[in-house]
C-alpha cells in the first residue's frame, strides 16, 4: 500500500499491578495505521481503549507499564524510549486530543502563548513566524476573528471552541499521528458532529493519521477508514469500516451495531447487548464474550479464539471463519 505504516502496534500488553495481583488491561493488541488514515477504536467503557492510546503516546502512569509488544512510529520503536525522548515525540510527532479540552490547556496562559510555545519547542521558528502560524491554525480550525481571539484565555471560549483550540494545538508541530480519545464526549450533542468533521478534514488535508477512540459506533461510522473493536482488553474484530458495519463477523460487533439507530436499517429501536462487560480482573475463561453471546456453544466456554481473517475483516470468534456474517 503506502509502505511503512505511520503507526504499527505489535502484540501490545499493558499491565497494572493491584493489591489482588496483576491486571492485564490490554492483551496482545496488534494494529496498524497508514498515513492519513483514521482508525476508530470502539468498545464499551472499560474495554481498554484509552489504555491502548495512552500506551502509544507513552502516558501509562507507573506502576502501570507496557509489559510486552512493540510500538513503532514510522518504522522507529517508541515504546522503550527514555521519558525525555518520549516527551519530544509527543507534541512533535504525535498530537493528542482528550475528552476534556481543559486537560490540554493551561488556564493561566492565553491560547496564543500555548500554541506559539508548542510550535517553537518543536519547529525551528522565530516568535513572529510562530505567531503567524498560530493565527493560521486557529483560522483553519474555525475560530472566528482568530487574530484577536489568540490573546484570550481558555475560559473565554465555549466548550466546542475550546476543543477546536486543542485541535489546533495538537496540529501545531505538524505531527504524523493524532490520538483523539473521546474528543466529543464532553461536548454538546449539537456540536459533536462539527468537531468530528473538522478533525477528519484537517487530518485529510495534512495527511495526518488518527487513532480515534470512542464508545460511539455512530461516530466511527461517520469518520473511520478502519475499525478495531475492543472487548475486555482485546481486539475482537478489526477491518475496513464498511465491512465491520455492514458485515460484522463478531457477535459483539453485531451487538454494538444494534446501538446505532441510523445504520442497521432493520433495527428500529436501539438494542442493548444484555449483560455487562466483565471487569478485567474477572474475565471468564474461553471467549470473554461467551456469557453474553447468543451463539455461544461448548468450545466458547473452554477455548479462547484468536483473531482470524473472516471476509475482509479479522475476528476472534469460533464462528467467524465459517459464517458469512454472524446472524444478529
Ligand atoms: N491507572 C490504572 N490503574 C489500574 N487499572 C487501570 C488504570 N487505568 C485503567 N485501568 C484498567 O484498565 C481498564 C480499561 O481502562 P480504559 O482503557 O480506560 O477503558 P476504556 O475502554 O473505557 O477507555 C479499566 O477498566 C481498569 O480496569
Ligand atoms: S467464540 Fe463463541 S461465545 Fe465467543 S463470540 Fe464467537 S460464538 Fe460467541
Ligand atoms: Mg476511555
How would you summarize this macromolecular structure in one to three sentences?
The chain has 328 residues and is an alpha/beta fold. The chain has helices spanning 49-56, 83-92, 111-122, 127-140, 146-149, 159-171, 189-206, 217-223, 241-246, 251-257, 298-302, and strands at residues 7-18, 21-33, 38-42, 65-73, 76-77, 94-97, 177-181, 209-214, 226-231, 234-240, 308-310, 313-315. Bound molecules: adenosine-5'-diphosphate (ADP), iron/sulfur cluster and magnesium ion (MG).
Strand order of the largest sheet: 6-7-8-3-9-10-12-11
Counting H and I runs of at least 4 residues, what is the number of helices? 11
Uncertain runs? 264-269
Radius of gyration: 20 Å
Fraction of helical residues: 25-40%
* Category by helix and strand content: alpha/beta
Bound molecules: adenosine-5'-diphosphate, iron/sulfur cluster, magnesium ion
**Overall average pLDDT:** 92
End-to-end CA span: 33 Å
Residues in β-strands, percent: 15-25%
Q: Which term fits the overall shape? A: globular
The count of strands amounts to 12
Amino acid at each position: 500500500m503506502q509502505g511503512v505504516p505511520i503507526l504499527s502496534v505489535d502484540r501490545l500488553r499493558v499491565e497494572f499491578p493491584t493489591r489482588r495481583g496483576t491486571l492485564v488491561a490490554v492483551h496482545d493488541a496488534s494494529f496498524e495505521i497508514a498515513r492519513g488514515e483514521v482508525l476508530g477504536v470502539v468498545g464499551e467503557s472499560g474495554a481498554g481503549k484509552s489504555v491502548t492510546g495512552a500506551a502509544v503516546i507513552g502516558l501509562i502512569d507507573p506502576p502501570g507499564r507496557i509489559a510486552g509488544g512493540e510500538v513503532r512510529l514510522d518504522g522507529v520503536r517508541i515504546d522503550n524510549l527514555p521519558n525525555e525522548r518520549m516527551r519530544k515525540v509527543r507534541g512533535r510527532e504525535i498530537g493528542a486530543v482528550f475528552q476534556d479540552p481543559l486537560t490540554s490547556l493551561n488556564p493561566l496562559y492565553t491560547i496564543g502563548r500555548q500554541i506559539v510555545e508548542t510550535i517553537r519547542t518543536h519547529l525551528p521558528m522565530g516568535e513572529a513566524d510562530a505567531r503567524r502560524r498560530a493565527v493560521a491554525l486557529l483560522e483553519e480550525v474555525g475560530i472566528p476573528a482568530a487574530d484577536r481571539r489568540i490573546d484570550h484565555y481558555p475560559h473565554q471560549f465555549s466548550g466546542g471552541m475550546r476543543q477546536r483550540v486543542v485541535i489546533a494545538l495538537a496540529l501545531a508541530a505538524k505531527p504524523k499521528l493524532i490520538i483523539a480519545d473521546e474528543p466529543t464526549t464532553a461536548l454538546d450533542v449539537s456540536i459533536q458532529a462539527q468537531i468530528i468533521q473538522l478533525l477528519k478534514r484537517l487530518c485529510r488535508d495534512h495527511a495526518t493519521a488518527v487513532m480515534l477512540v470512542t464508545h460511539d459506533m455512530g461516530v466511527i461510522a461517520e469518520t473511520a477508514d478502519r475499525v478495531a473493536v475492543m472487548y475486555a482488553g482485546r481486539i475482537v474484530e478489526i477491518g475496513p469500516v464498511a465491512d465491520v458495519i455492514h458485515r460484522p463477523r463478531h457477535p459483539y460487533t453485531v451487538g454494538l451495531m444494534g446501538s446505532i439507530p441510523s445504520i442497521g436499517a432493520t433495527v428500529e429501536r436501539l438494542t442493548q447487548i444484555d449483560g455487562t462487560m466483565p471487569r478485567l480482573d474477572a474475565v471468564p475463561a474461553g471467549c470473554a464474550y461467551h456469557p453474553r453471546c447468543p451463539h455461544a456453544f461448548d468450545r466458547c466456554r473452554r477455548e479462547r479464539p484468536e483473531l482470524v481473517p473472516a471476509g475482509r475483516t479479522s475476528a476472534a470468534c469460533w464462528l467467524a471463519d465459517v459464517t458469512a456474517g454472524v446472524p444478529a
